[in-house]
Write a structure and sequence with these properties.
Layout (H helix, E strand, L loop, with lengths): L3 H10 L4 H8 L3 H9 L6 H11 L3 H5 L8 H7 L4 H9 L2 H5 L4 H9 L11 H5 L2 H8 L3 H11 L18 H8 L3 H26 L7 H4 L2 E5 L3 H4 L3 H8 L9 H8 L3 E10 L3 E10 L1 H10 L15 H12 L5 E2 L8 H4 L16 E7 L6 E8 L1 H9 L4 H7 L11 E8 L18 H8 L4 E10 L2 E2 L8 H13 L5 H6 L2 H4 L7 E9 L12 E9 L9 E6 L6 E2 H10 L12 H23 L4 E6 H4 L37 E6 L11 E3 L9 E3 L5 E4 L7 E6 L45 E8 L7 H13 L12 H11 L35
Parallel strand pairs: 7-8, 10-14, 14-15
Antiparallel strand pairs: 1-3, 2-3, 4-6, 5-6, 8-9, 10-11, 11-12, 12-13, 15-20, 16-17, 18-19, 19-20
């Protein structure tokens, strides 16, 4: 814990020999040599004496940069031994409750597990922050930051909340001294100020420019022109609704200014109707806000929690976070903010060190010849702060009195959303800039709240449901149930033995989804692979309720589907490590992740048999046994590390079967029409329209393949049924004839319906497992979808696993284009990432 070069350099600068320094510290000259060559480390007490002898601070000898301190650094800086620090902490109520000892404090500082009641509870450990801050003579936020640096994988301690303060008596007297009109003015000015503050917060969420608070807090009150010509300001409209006639900048607002409750300024703007118009601006002061709160019966606002950044510093941190791995240019981050959040800075001569949320990184020129520039990036603690403390939004929900997930109650948020036009807000270009779904989902998921969204307004105005069934609302509500892991009776009915043809209602049905994400700006190396899974688990008694489990690669633990999805959405996609991995290595790693997940599931199911369903276009990259060219061959001839999911497990833990599903339109033929054949030799076959049944396709290898034909929901609607007999490639041209009977309208320009198909192929099944029963069960799980009242193309467990990924807040910014999916059917590993062609059918 001592910087050897710093000790030697400072001793030489002070003109002291080792013997002279040893005499001042009270140790031998040989011990000073041991300190300088790293053989031995001084105790905190000796470290403090060394600092006094050399005329510097303890931190200067430990080599720890400001803003990078850990818990042991804080203790060393005060010269406390483990025993003495534990004794001081134990004298506090929090330390006594946690039974702080030297051994527990040592484990805490090393990042090791701390055994004992309360140490795994963030609220309990949060009560220890205050006593530690007092013991180490630093602010609470410095202790919290050091804790998070020391133990980054632990739950963040929750600082003790502050008590709500009662209204100030003097402010209440000042309110009562105002007349009724003045009270209305002051109250509405405060409400408009809060509304503007919310608008600025929303702009910050959308990464839009936000003016300085000194600018936006000046609220437009009145324009120096006739209202009939220029209209009313928003604040005037507020006052008019409160019954104030002729609202303006007259005696009332000037009386408030004389009392120090508001400030009045003027400027000039260009108005579309009135040309150059003078404008009166009003800003509520701190005193005015206190008086308004007291008069309206609101409690005094408590000071901001010590661990949260101010609005100004939070805005700076968001700018750096928005820059991503590439970082923010050195010139773009200047001013006083660095003294509070930059590594190596200090706020004032005797002020506390910076929190160390951002750090300057050198960027080398091509060839590594010299440093081309420096860029600001988030430190690990800075990223943790953005994740754990996002602008007080979680606190706002808590203050609203919302009890989320309490007493075993599942909470789902059914939210109305809208997409503002791009020209409604300056700087908005549409798409992600105006879509708040992924931003609000990232806030709700850590609160264990599943969310679903329904468009409430578009460019034409509010959306009103049409007569009959409100299909968008119905689908949104069903998908919310899916996010909550709710399984209705349709699944049990679909898997009933008399309907499925086999006891498929006594086995678990597992879906595994695998996707490669794109690298984000600035990331290097092989992209990460995202893995999600879900499992439909049968009830213990045959008449019970099915349940659904979930699993993700970011939190590799089988838990309820709702908890798995919320924890997945609460965390960011994994970042690329910068390491280059070959094609085979990357997908073997993904297969190994799945192998561990399947092993854990087998233990979780406690003997319940199960089958695994995978999507061919992604799974064939991980397992050679999925590929068409490998059917009928031996696992010994594989290129991949694993032949099939669960293939390496013990026989009792292996899946009963692996079911391959393919919905790729380039690989699964589009069904068009049917032909009816009769047993009579002289009977001619008759063409029929497209059917929606399950058809068995004979193959020249191990097992037959089934095709589930699908038709669009609107197929039976108005406008004809083109597509049931032939595709648009065979569309009939128009025919013009003077004879009306021979005229024919061309089919090309009419409404067509593209039929789709789902290929179902059970492989690697046990001898007593019927391939037909598995195919029928898979088709039933496509037909009885969780997310709406009609058929979907993937069976329930695979659809649920895939939807977890599709709903992730970061999905749209990392998902690769479908046409760039990789495949390596039958190809030899080239050792590098490569694009691929489709797997031949």
């Amino acid at each position: 814990m001592i910087d050897r070069s710093s000790l030697t350099r400072r001793r030489s600068a002070a003109g002291l020999s080792r013997s002279e320094l040893a005499e001042r510290v009270g140790v031998s000259a040989r011990m000073i040599l041991f300190y300088e060559d790293g053989t031995s480390t001084p105790t905190p007490a000796r470290l403090e004496r060394l600092a006094i002898a050399l005329g510097c601070q303890v931190r200067a000898l430990t080599g720890t940069q400001r803003g990078q301190e850990t818990l042991i650094d804080l203790r060393y800086a005060t010269g406390l031994t483990l025993e003495r620090a534990a004794e001081l902490l134990r004298s506090s109520p929090a330390g006594h409750a946690l039974r702080v000892s030297a051994s527990k404090l040592s484990a805490l500082e090393k990042g090791a597990a701390v055994h004992g009641a309360g140490w795994s509870d963030p609220k309990a450990t949060g009560t220890l922050l205050g006593p530690m801050a007092k013991t180490y003579r630093v602010p609470v936020r410095v202790v919290l930051d050091a804790w998070m640096r020391t133990r980054p994988a632990d739950p963040v301690p929750v600082p003790a909340g502050q008590k709500t303060q009662r209204p100030d008596a003097a402010a209440l007297v000042a309110w009562e001294s105002l007349n009724e009109r003045q009270q209305v003015y002051l109250g509405e000015i405060m409400r408009d100020d809060r509304m503007t503050e919310t608008e600025m917060w929303m702009r910050r969420l959308r990464h839009l420019p936000v003016p300085r608070a000194a600018e936006w807090r000046r609220l437009p009150l009145a324009l120096d022109a006739a209202a009939s010509q220029v209209g009313y300001t928003r604040l005037q409209e507020r006052l008019r609704r409160r019954g104030v006639h002729d609202p303006g900048a007259g005696r009332t607002v000037h009386a408030l200014e004389r009392r120090g409750m508001v400030r009045i300024t003027r400027d000039t703007i260009e108005h579309s109707a009135g040309g150059s118009v003078g404008r009166v601006l009003v800003e509520i002061t701190r005193r005015g806000r206190a008086v308004a709160r007291a008069g309206l019966g609101e409690p005094r606002e408590p000071d901001a929690p010590a661990h949260l950044l101010s609005e100004w510093l939070w805005g700076v941190l968001v700018r750096v976070a928005s820059a991503g791995p590439e970082g923010l240019a050195d010139d773009d981050l200047a001013g006083r903010s660095l003294f509070y959040i930059g590594v190596g800075y200090r706020g004032g001569a005797n002020g506390p060190p910076s929190r160390g949320f951002v750090e300057s990184h050198p960027v080398m020129a091509p060839g590594g010849t010299h440093v081309a520039e420096y860029r600001w990036r988030l430190t690990a603690l800075g990223r943790a702060h953005v994740t754990e403390c996002p602008d007080g939004r979680r606190d706002a929900l808590a203050e609203a009195g919302v009890r989320l997930g309490a007493d075993g109650v599942m909470v789902g948020a059914w939210c109305e959303t809208e997409m503002p036009a791009a020209d409604e807000d300056e700087g908005l270009t549409g798409g992600d800039d105006t879509d708040g779904k992924h931003q609000s989902k990232a806030v709700l998921a850590p609160l264990d709240v599943a969310s679903q969204y329904l468009l409430g307004r578009d460019d034409a105005g509010p959306i009103k449901p049409k007569k009959g069934t409100d299909h968008p609302a119905e689908a949104a509500l069903l998908d919310l149930y899916r996010s909550l892991g709710v399984i209705d009776d349709r699944v049990a009915n679909a898997l009933a033995p008399e309907k499925a043809g086999h006891a498929v209602d006594r086995i678990a049905h597992v879906g595994i989804h695998i996707r490669q994400q794109n690298n984000r700006p600035g990331e290097k190396g092989s992209p990460k692979v995202v893995v999600t899974a879900s499992a439909l688990v049968p009830p213990s008694p045959s008449c019970g309720t099915w349940t659904m489990l979930g699993w993700t690669s970011t939190r590799p633990l089988w838990q309820s589907y709702r908890a798995a999805q919320n924890s997945f959405h609460a965390s960011a996609y994994p970042a690329a490590t910068g390491e280059r991995r070959s094609y085979r290595q990357k997908w073997d790693d993904a297969a190994e992740i799945v192998e561990r997940a399947v092993a854990d599931l087998a233990e979780e199911l406690e003997g319940v048999p199960y089958v695994i369903t995978v999507e061919e276009t992604s799974a064939r990259r991980c397992w050679d046994g999925i590929q068409n060219v490998r059917q009928g061959t031996s696992p010994a001839d594989r290129n991949s590390k694993y032949w099939l999911p669960g293939h390496t497990l013990s026989p009792g833990d292996q899946p009963l079967a692996v079911i391959r599903v393919n919905i790729d339109g380039n690989e699964v033929p589009q069904p068009v029409g049917t032909s009816r054949h009769y047993r009579r030799p002289d009977a001619e076959s008759k063409p029929g329209m497209t059917a929606t049944g399950l058809f068995e396709i004979a193959t020249d290898f191990d097992s037959p393949v089934w095709i589930l034909c699908n038709v669009p929901r609107a197929f039976a609607g108005k406008g004809g049924r083109l597509g049931e007999h032939h595709t648009r490639w065979d569309a009939e041209p128009s025919v013009y004839s003077e004879d009306p009977a021979k005229r024919r309208k061309g089919e090309m320009g009419q409404n067509w319906y593209a039929m789709t198909a789902t290929e179902i192929y059970p492989i690697a099944r046990g001898a007593d497992m019927s391939a037909e029963a598995l195919a029928v069960a898979t088709a039933k799980l496509c037909h009885q979808a969780l997310t709406w009242s009609d058929r979907v193309r993937l069976p329930v467990p695979l659809h649920a696993a895939k939807q977890m990924d599709l709903d992730h807040p970061q999905y749209r910014r990392t998902a690769p284009s479908e046409e760039k999916l990789e495949a390596e059917p039958g190809a030899e590993d080239s050792g590098v990432d490569q694009q691929s062609s489709a797997d031949d059918v």
